[in-house]
Amino acid sequence: MHTGEQYHTVILNSRRDRLVRERFQNMALKLLGKGADVLDFGAGTGIDAKAYAAHGHPTFVYEPSEAMREYMEHHCSDEIARKTITKVGSPLACTVQAVTANFAVLNHIADHQVLFEEFSRVVRRDGFVLISMLNPYYLGDARYGWWRSNLINLMRRGRYAIASESHIHRFTPRVVARAAAPYFRLERVTPRGFGMATHLYMFLLFRRT
């Protein structure tokens, strides 16, 4: 849909996306111990990875899209040269305190059970996984027919898929938490309460058990 450069430009020019990214980064940085290493899963063009590295966190990046990887090499060229950012061909190629996955990366994956089992081999004991996912309760999507037609699926199964080229799925926190067990427990959901109706993204924090 976009080249890496186009995606990078679009997302940085969106005020809403910048604010969401800042909130996610701030949450991750507060959770990370001093000098702790992190895997940026689905790192895109390296925007988050660059921020983690700037705060002294050795950062591994996994990105399956070739277009994104190519632009990441440009955007993070200095950090890659200094080895504060390291590209990996598989998320299993490192061991870290934390895994982060921003901007709905996991909404492109239908089954999270295998993924969290892999994360359990990457994240050290008492480490964490922090993910940003599309919020299935966001009322701003109520204007779309696909949202209204899937309300029953959401209530009954806690998940549904949208028939589209991008194969986007929606999940409730409890469904993701069930997939993460027994390796991780859901520790925090942000936002809470009425905020779930007004925020497009929700942040889920999982602690390694």
Automatic annotation (TrEMBL):
This is Methyltransferase domain-containing protein. It comes from the Bacteria. One of its GO terms (molecular function) is methyltransferase activity. It holds the Pfam family Methyltransf_23. InterPro entries: SAM-dependent_MTases_sf. Keywords: Methyltransferase, Transferase. Signal peptide: none annotated. One of its GO terms (biological process) is methylation.
